[in-house]
Amino acid sequence: MNIKIGTRGSKLALAQTNFVVESLKKIAPDIHAEICVIKTSGDIMQDVSLLQIGGQGAFVKEIEEALLSGKVDLAVHSMKDVPGEIPEGLTFAAILKREDVRDVLVSRGRIKFEFMPKGAAIGTGSLRRGAQIKAMLPDINIVPLRGNIDTRLKKIETENLTGVILAAAGMKRLGYAQTISQFLPIELMLPAVGQGALGLQIRKRDSELAEMLIKLNHAPTATEVTAERSYLRALGGGCRLPIAAYGLIEGGCLTLEGLVAAPNGASVIRDKVWGAPDEAEDLGRKLAGMIMEKGGKKLLNLVC
């Protein structure tokens, strides 16, 4: 089988796609995979904030269009980049086993988060990270940051930053774990929806490809991400508001924790639900309802 795989062209995206190709060849040795690099809005317009170019979805829209038009047969996405709603005609055939879901701090002098001096400059392009940082350390200055991992790391020096916040998964996949100053616990920094997970997106009608890719699906991760994305959709997934969620299956129970915050961190609403893994969609909607009742609706009305 010949298959064209669409991906972004960053070092991380290509590393992730090559990992998928290696995994595919293990289950289908005769497969011939061609990697097709597609430039997305998020990659092209790096001098503006993601909010100005559509927010979540800026890194997947053009790839999904290539799928729908038949230019590629399979797309590899970081699930944290995928909006709550995906185009009609597309589906995720597999969600791979999740990498480390946490965020990490890379700092000057390897200073830890809890010892940050007043006025420290922390770089991040994420509303979610910025809001949670400001909620804990109001005196921290958040410096908007765009670009790939290498670019962000260099900006510690070029922008005179105290540190930057990045996803552990990307750092590990690129072999940069040794540069991490601190892994931020979930209790401190709730991750993005789908963080650490890779999704394989195809056209719904491609049943033969779906049958092959399901062999790469990691059911626990898929269920966890399903719950998180259900929560995102119930809140209004395209909203320009800091939103975080983390699902985890342990001992046959699915725990889902979610958060909505004011962009400046002045208000943070966080809650948690538990249930059976097969209730993932319902748990996401339930948690969203709880968050809305506790003040999330007011925040959503102000920003969205």
Question: Can you tell me about this structure?
Answer:
- This protein has helices spanning 11-27, 41-44, 61-69, 127-136, 149-158, 168-173, 207-213, 219-235, 280-303, and strands at residues 2-7, 32-37, 74-78, 90-95, 103-107, 121-124, 141-144, 163-167, 182-184, 198-203, 243-250, 253-261, 268-275.
- With 304 residues, the protein is α/β, with parallel strands linked by helices.
- It has three domains: 1-96 and 197-217, Periplasmic binding protein-like II (D-Maltodextrin-Binding Protein, domain 2); 103-184, 3-Layer(aba) Sandwich (D-Maltodextrin-Binding Protein, domain 2), CATH 3.40.190; 218-304, Double Stranded RNA Binding Domain.
- The chain has a five-stranded mixed β-sheet, with helices on both faces.
- The protein is globular and about 60 Å long.
- The mean pLDDT is 92.
Give a topology summary:
Elements: E1 2-7, H1 11-27, E2 32-37, H2 41-44, H3 61-69, E3 74-78, E4 90-95, E5 103-107, E6 121-124, H4 127-136, E7 141-144, H5 149-158, E8 163-167, H6 168-173, E9 182-184, E10 198-203, H7 207-213, H8 219-235, E11 243-250, E12 253-261, E13 268-275, H9 280-303
Parallel strand pairs: 1-2, 1-3, 6-7, 6-8
Antiparallel strand pairs: 3-10, 4-10, 5-8, 5-9, 11-12, 12-13
Helix pairs in contact: 8-9
Count of β-strands = 13
Identify the CATH architecture of the largest domain.
Answer: 3-Layer(aba) Sandwich
* Name of the top-level CATH class of the largest domain: Alpha Beta
Question: Given the C-alpha coordinates, what overall shape results?
Answer: globular
Category from helices, strands and their pairing: alpha/beta
- As for the CATH topology of the largest domain, it is D-Maltodextrin-Binding Protein, domain 2
Which regions have little confidence, pLDDT < 50, spanning 5+ residues? none
- Strands of the biggest beta sheet: in what spatial order? 2-1-3-10-4
What is the helical fraction, as a range of percent? Answer: 25-40%
- H and E order: EHEHHEEEEHEHEHEEHHEEEH
